[in-house]
Amino acid sequence: MTETVQQIIEVIRSNTSFLLTTHEGPDGDAIGSSLALASFLRKIGKNVTVHYRDPVPDLYAFLPAADTVLPHIPDRHYDVAFVLDIGERKRAGNEFCNFSRVTTTVNLDHHLSCDNFADYNLIDPQAASTGILVYRIATAFGYRFDRETALCIYVATITDTGSFRYSNANREAFSVAGEMIEFGVNAWDVAEKLYENQPQRRLELLAKCLPTLEVFKDGQAASVTVTSDMYASCGADAELTDGFVNYPRSIRGVEVAIFFRQLEENKYKVGFRSKGKVNVAAFSAALGGGGHHNAAGCTLDGTLDDVKTLVYRIVEDSL
Ligand SMILES: [Mn+2]
Fold first, then answer.
1. How large a percentage of the chain has pLDDT more than 70?
2. pLDDT in tens, 238-270
3. At 303, is the secondary structure helix, strand, or coil?
4. CA angle, 237 as apex, 231 and 238 as ends, to 5°?
5. Is pLDDT of 271 > 90?
6. Which of 20, 93, 96, 195 has its CA 20 to 30 A from that of 54?
7. Coil, helix or strand at residue 241
8. Cα 115 to ligand 1 centroid, rounded to whole Å
9. String of DSSP letters for 75-134
């Protein structure tokens, strides 16, 4: 049973201090949805602290109040903690998971696999982004959007829908985005900041990543890999690999794309992307991870060869 928007509004109305957080390695929706909620709550006079386990990537530094996100939670009491776009609770990081000076917890999410770990859980896999859930709450509250809040909702939604190309880009996603444009968001300005603003190092890293392309299962699956050596040789880091998995997925005939990213000596992050027919959340679940139908991931120990063998077998068996 998932809570209604009205119940969440009641929680907002009847409390004063709010702590907001999202998942490790925050993406556009994690940041956009939490900063949208922060912006809305601050504008209606609430006291808001935003904490992420990991820093805001440079790419999203242009979002309003991105510079107020704290790496540590101030040691004080909060009436309410909102956890956004998390997928699973532990992805908030140890500091948040161990923080107990909160009266009420609220979980806003659109991940299929998210469980009801909070006092109030608003989980809707039909929502294109968690930003859309924040939109529903603010709208039902009667909030008149300002440009800052609108920008955060827009960025949350454009990033989680792959610029309105993925199968989750439903009518609501387009109509909310359209409404955000009405409140002053400039689509080209956002596109330029997100997509026409790459550091040179990212393309240098991509140039090293693409030759690792492997296509298997009669052309239905493909992978690329980034190793620690590649980062070192370009002065790059994991942040710059965002979107690399889209290259193997873009190959004609490929249904499943895999991205192997080295974390340490014998540890790899494995990202799965589907073109739609295959539920990649099943692969990551079989390997101890989580995610959506079209995007999922897990972390595996072992050499690159070990990890690839294991992953390829699971993918080959199910295609
Ligand atoms: Mn999301």
1. 99
2. 889 989 999 999 999 999 999 999 999 999 999
3. coil
4. 110
5. yes
6. 195
7. helix
8. 15
9. SS-EEEEEEES-SSGGGG-HHHHT---EEEEEEEE--TT----SSEEEE-TTSS-HHHHH
Per-residue pLDDT at 41:
98
**Residue 71 carries which DSSP code?**
S
Instruction: Say if residues 258 and 233 touch (Cβ distance below 8 Å).
Output: no
Q: Across all residues in the chain, what is the average pLDDT?
A: 95
The pLDDT confidence band at residue 118, using thresholds 50, 70 and 90, is: very high
Query: In the block, which residue shows the tokens 């009491």?
Result: 77
One-letter amino acid identity for 280? V
The Å distance, Cα 218 to ligand 1 centre, comes to 32
Q: How many CA atoms lie within 13 A of 192 on its CB side?
A: 5
| Domains in the chain, CATH or no CATH each | 5-195 (3.90.1640.10), 200-318 (3.10.310.30)
Tell me the per-residue pLDDT of 1-12, one tens digit each, with 9 for 90 and over.
Answer: 467 999 999 999
Ligand 1 centroid – CA 306 distance (Å): 30
Residue pointed to by tokens 């998390």: 86
Q: Is 14 exposed, middle or buried (0-12, 13-18, 19+ CB in 10 A)?
A: exposed
Length of the chain: 319
- The tokens of 130 are what? 């968690």
Report the DSSP beta bridge partners of residue 51.
21, 70
Ligand 1 centroid to Cα of residue 75, in Å, is 28
How many A from CA of 68 to the centre of ligand 1? 21
Q: Ligand 1: distance of its center to the CA of 110 in Å?
A: 6
